[in-house]
Amino acid sequence: MRISSVNTYLVRPRWGFVEILTDEGIAGWGEAVLEGHASTVAACVEEMSDYLIGADPMKIEDIWTVLYRAGFYRGGGVLMSAIAGIDQALWDIKGKYFQAPVYELMGGSCRNRMRVYSWVGGDRPTDVGAAARERMDAGFTAVKMNATEELQMIDSYEKIDQVLERVGAIRDACGKYFGIAIDFHGRVHKPMAKVLAKKLEEYDPMFLEEPVLCEHMENFKEIAACCNIPIATGERLFTKYDFKRLFEVGGVDIIQPDLSHAGGITEVKKIAAMAEAHDVALAPHCPLGPIALASCLQVDATSYNAVIQEQSMGIHYNVGKTVLDYVKNKEDFEFTDGYVKLPVKPGIGVEVNRELVLEESVCPHKWKNPVWRHRDGSVAEW
């Protein structure tokens, strides 16, 4: 079997799909995208297709290594997101060839289902108490929210109080043992992150996400020392080597590699094993589409340290189209009591609505995140 062609598609709301076709008629799907840079990643996939055409799609490790090492320059969001989508598609082909879910080809599952959480609020969250209660009534046992609007390095305690009020509203609405994940989104710098971490402790959050950006990863231990709340990060790290440095500096309890940014199933499975060796939990980042979610579930199925899975159904970014619009086997993505069953179809586990993908790709999206500014006019982290 040989790879005959590689296609890329940009589809709403902000996703990029890659389709790899073979001369035996087996097609594999991946999700290759870096939010806000989808066209750049698609172009990178097309550049990499020179290495793919005519190759044996079953030799995933070899193809991955060629794409990563043979191009001289390596790593970073664009290159690794392109490799991620290609890798997912290759695993999809292999699973379909052997008529088995991908996790069965990686040693089989160590669990029967995976806990998931839902997003509440938006970029500047409001009314999160009522929204969290709705998710709880729908069966979810945990939610995640953006903690705060933009914060300068030293900012007003009024904004701190607003964060505490929002988190308190969720705790009041959903009870003491409902999971609350609080995403700082890299908007907070170390001085205010220490204040927030300390004050949020009384609400027993499930974890604090990206209290500072990973470019300041040496500060995680200092922030962790301010509170007894698990620290999570990793969506903006792209290789096992990035995570090696993170484990070396310490202070992080949960890693969140993104299956569409960090080299796909092949690389994230290795990162997950590294985390397990450091007694660090895994909660893959996934505010993306169905192929990315199914890829996450394949790794979750085989990773002992996987604790909870992000998913984007109902997330505020999804405008125009959402996850299940592109899925024909919607029943495989139903959530029950805050869990989703492991994929059952061969390959990644998604029967892609190719007709809709082709229709959407006629007018490719050009999604960009907003540019925020502080009151003094300086650029704020989004």
From TrEMBL:
Pfam families: MR_MLE_C, MR_MLE_N. It comes from the Bacteria. Its EC number is 4.2.1.6. Keywords: Lyase, Magnesium, Metal-binding. It is an enzyme of class 4 (lyase). The keyword Mitochondrion does not apply. PROSITE patterns: MR_MLE_1, MR_MLE_2. GO terms for molecular function: galactonate dehydratase activity; metal ion binding. GO terms for biological process: amino acid catabolic process; D-galactonate catabolic process. Residues 125-230 form the Mandelate racemase/muconate lactonizing enzyme C-terminal domain. NCBIfam families: PRK14017.1. This is Galactonate dehydratase. It comes from Enterocloster asparagiformis.
